[in-house]
Structure formats: C-alpha cells, structure tokens
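Researcher: Sequence recovery benchmark, item below. Answer with residues only.
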C-alpha cells in the first residue's frame, strides 16, 4: 500500500474515494478516528492509501478531476 494523498478536508476524501471506486481502484482511508484524540477540530490530516499497482492510475484520475493539489509526490 502506498500513500496517495493527505488532507484535512473530508470532502476531498469523499470525492476521491468515489472517483477511485468508480474506476475499480480499492482505497483505504487512515486516521479517520483521530478526531477523538484531537478534540474534533480537524487538525490531523487523513491519509488515503492505494495498492502499489494502482498508484499511477489513481494519481492520474485524481489529477484529471482537480484533486491534484492534495496528492503526495
């Protein structure tokens, strides 16, 4: 698994998840429940992971749909 993106914005996570699942790319979001530790202020970013074999396609899909600014290099 490779880290595809990292963001504090839950709408970016939801949109990215929908885009990737529509293309049959499995993704997994980490740090979803960290808000319990931080007091629900959204300070800690969530990370989206994809399989190594899907990383190139997933990056291309997200860039084509305007989510490129959250992608990790």
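Model:
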């Amino acid at each position: 698994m490779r880290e595809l993106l990292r963001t504090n914005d839950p709408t970016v996570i939801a949109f990215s998840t929908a885009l990737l699942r529509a293309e049959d790319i499995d993704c997994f979001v980490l740090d979803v429940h960290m808000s319990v530790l931080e007091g629900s202020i959204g300070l800690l970013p969530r990370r989206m992971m994809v399989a190594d074999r899907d990383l190139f396609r997933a990056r291309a899909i997200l860039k084509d749909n305007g989510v490129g600014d959250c992608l990790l290099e």
